[in-house]
Amino acid sequence: MVEIIRTNNLVLIGFLQSLLENANIPVLVADLHISALEGMIGAFPRRMLVPEDYVAQARRLIKEAGLEAELRHA
Fold this sequence. Notes:
Blueprint: E1 2-7, H1 10-22, E2 28-30, H2 32-37, E3 46-50, H3 55-64
C-alpha cells in the first residue's frame, strides 16, 4: 500500500475516497481511530493508501479532479 494523501480535511477524504472507489481503485483510509481519540485537534492526520498497482491511476484521477496539490510526493 502506498500513501497518496495525508490530511485532516474530512470532506476531502470523503470526496477522494468516493472518486477512487467509483473508478474501482481499492482505498484504505488509515488513522481514523487515532484521529477520533485525539479529539480531532489535527495532531494525527488521516492517510489515504492505495495498492501499488493502482498508484498511477489514482494520482491521475486526483490531478484531473484539480486536487494535485493534495498529493503526497512520490
